[in-house]
Amino acid sequence: MASIEDYVQGRSPLSADQVHRLRELVADWQLLSDLSFADLILWVPLRKDMKSWPTGYVAVAHIRPTTAATLFPHDVIGEEITYGARPHIDQALSSAEIIRDTQPEPMGDFMVKEETIPVIFDEHVIGVISRHRNSELMRQPSRLELNYREIAHNLYRMISEGTFPYPDAGSLFDPAPRVGDGLIRLDVNGVVSYASPNARSAFSRLGWMSEVEGHLLGEVAQSLARVRPDAHEETIALGLTGKSLKRVEIENAGGTIDFTVLPLIKSGDRIGAIVMLNNVTELRRRERELVTKDATIREIHHRVKNNLQTVSALLRLQARRIEDPGASAALNEAVRRIASIALVHETLSSSRDSSVAFDEVLDSLVSHALELSPRMNELHIERTGKLGSLEPRIATPLALVITELIHNALEHGLAEEGLALGIHVSSNGSELSVTISDDGVGFPEGFDISTSPNLGLQIVRTLTENELRGTLSLVTDEQETRAVLTFPSN
């Protein structure tokens, strides 16, 4: 989908800041369309510089109201018109003032009233909004419609004065408030002069049974809010006076309501405010459930890790009491394998998400393996590469495979002189690779891992093929022996 820059590049003198201003306007103007029950089209003049007359205009954005039927079944974005074809747009550009007193004109089956608003930024008209409404629906407006239109006029005037969109609004409109969820109009003192039916329903849900109009909004909200022990009660009241751009949330047993406060400015003076309401009760409930589930999952991982460590300690104790060297060695190997799984769960229990920072696990695996090696003081280890974060589905079997390969290299693959162990890991996005190398004598001639009676290598082969869906190759040359593990990253 084309952007504003695509339509104006090389055809308009707009600067990057001016284009950014138009993007900010478009990001917030669903509110304007809904309040005025109108389709809005943003036109940018096509000209050489800001002082020359345009040759025409290009439509760079179009928004339809959710409060009324659209008058444009098809988007007009990208449509161009010549200068003089739409006098109201020309007049708004040249006068830098809103053109309102226009006569309805036929458009298909409707009589449509067009009004135009100049978009002012840094004292320049950088665009023109054309607002299109069905004039038949304007004859007997309800109280809601009258208030919405008056608020819309205030906001359009702010656009023509360069004070809307609000500067530095940041994440205030994320998610963007919607007119249909509830709207309150405040006078200059913060007193409610109008509340839409949905806004009154929201207050009823919170426990306010009387009419909200005529009351200070801040006092009403403060009386309903369940204030946290670490919160200041006056924050709610001050945030809902309408004096500044604010987002305030109140909660009690009836639910949670989010308030977005938008001051209305005229000629630099505040004349009141509008407050958009959003019932976020269900959203907050789901967030709390997610937090609880996340904490529960971390606690489960923590308990699994502790249980594995307990099993490991029991096996280690049993190994010390067994006189048979073979049985004792088997139990110690089991201890080592359980410790590898425990390391993965330890990382998961402290992680903020469901991934495993595997490079930290690998560091621990290497350290643990060295502690068990009788020749650790003579070893030279070279470690290169990073794997980053992995899913637990991959991390657990990979930890076991690497543990077995390192242990096999330490036990069988070290030369008397060199004592060199290499660990290289890499990722190319879709495939991960781990290479364990040593300077030992290598595998005997005719060695085949599929028929080897070595339990550790059988574990490696099974996990590589079944869990990692990868391949393992064992290579011996004159300089070193390498175990190369390759598997997909997802």
Spatial order of strands in the largest sheet: 3-2-1-6-5-4
Question: What is the makeup of the main sheet?
Answer: 6 strands, antiparallel
Termini gap: 31 Å
User: Any idea what the CATH superfamily of the largest domain is called?
Assistant: GAF domain
CATH class of the largest domain: Alpha Beta
Keywords: ATP-binding, Kinase, Nucleotide-binding, Phosphoprotein, Transferase
Pfam family, one: GAF_PdtaS
Domain Histidine kinase: 299-490
GO molecular function: ATP binding; protein histidine kinase activity
Description of the structure:
By secondary structure, this protein is α+β, with helices and mostly antiparallel strands. It has 4 domains: about 5-160, Beta-Lactamase, CATH 3.30.450; about 175-280, PAS domain (Beta-Lactamase, 2-Layer Sandwich), CATH 3.30.450; about 280-355; about 375-490, Histidine kinase-like ATPase, C-terminal domain (Heat Shock Protein 90). It contains 13 helices and 18 strands. It has helices at about 5-10, 15-30, 30-35, 85-95, 145-160, 195-205, 215-225, 235-240, 280-320, 325-350, 360-370, 390-410, 455-465, and strands at about 40-45, 55-65, 80, 105, 110-120, 125-135, 185, 190-195, 245-250, 255-265, 270-280, 355, 380-385, 390, 420-425, 430-440, 470-475, 480-490. A 6-stranded antiparallel sheet has the order 3-2-1-6-5-4. A 5-stranded antiparallel sheet has the order 8-7-11-10-9, with helices on both faces. The chain has a 5-stranded mixed sheet with strand order 13-15-16-18-17, with helices on one face. Strand 17 (about 470-475) and strand 18 (about 480-490) form a beta hairpin. The mean pLDDT is about 85.
